[in-house]
Design brief:
This protein has two helices and seven strands. It has helices at about 5-25, 60-75; strands spanning about 40, 50-55, 85-90, 90-95, 100-105, 110-115, 125.
């Protein structure tokens, strides 16, 4: 057997081994695909994942995120101090904390920012939607000194 054939055979063996290992890996929980249904995800002591309906007929993932943000505030009012509320909407997992909402296709996967908390109000906004004008205000007309100054 030539060097090239040994190299090809070795690479083939490595590919087959990695495919075999990937197929043995346990798949994580999948988010429900129900259209327009927003879920809060619970983790009972049994180790399973439980999906609790929060709202139905939600037109988009942003509306579901707002419902979960509101649910988090309700939990805080009741004395339940959860740092993160887990949710699900049409195959995506949502992660709601005090400052932002992230989403991911998997429970353990990479999370991307969906919404952020408004800096001065208690509502969610799209990141980058507030643009502050950095130029100082200019006077609208001539500035005159008052006549009664000493």
């Amino acid at each position: 057997m030539s060097k090239g054939m040994k190299l090809i055979a070795g690479l083939g063996l490595m590919v087959m081994a990695s495919v075999g290992l990937a197929s043995c890996q346990k798949a994580g929980p999948k988010a429900p695909l129900d259209t327009g249904v927003c879920y809060q995800v619970g983790f009972p002591a049994s180790g399973d994942v439980k999906y609790n309906v929060v709202a139905r007929n939600q037109p988009s993932i942003e509306y579901c995120a707002a419902q979960l943000f509101k649910l988090r505030l309700e939990f805080l009012k009741q004395g339940v101090s959860r740092k993160i509320i887990y949710g699900a909407y049409q195959g995506n997992f949502l992660f709601v904390d005090a400052k932002l909402v992230k989403f991911s296709r998997t429970l353990d996967g990479r999370r991307m920012t969906l919404l952020v908390k408004h800096p001065r109000e208690d509502r969610l906004i799209v990141p980058g939607s507030i643009v502050e004008d950095r130029t100082p205000p200019q006077p609208s007309g001539p500035i005159r000194e008052p006549a009664n100054l000493p």
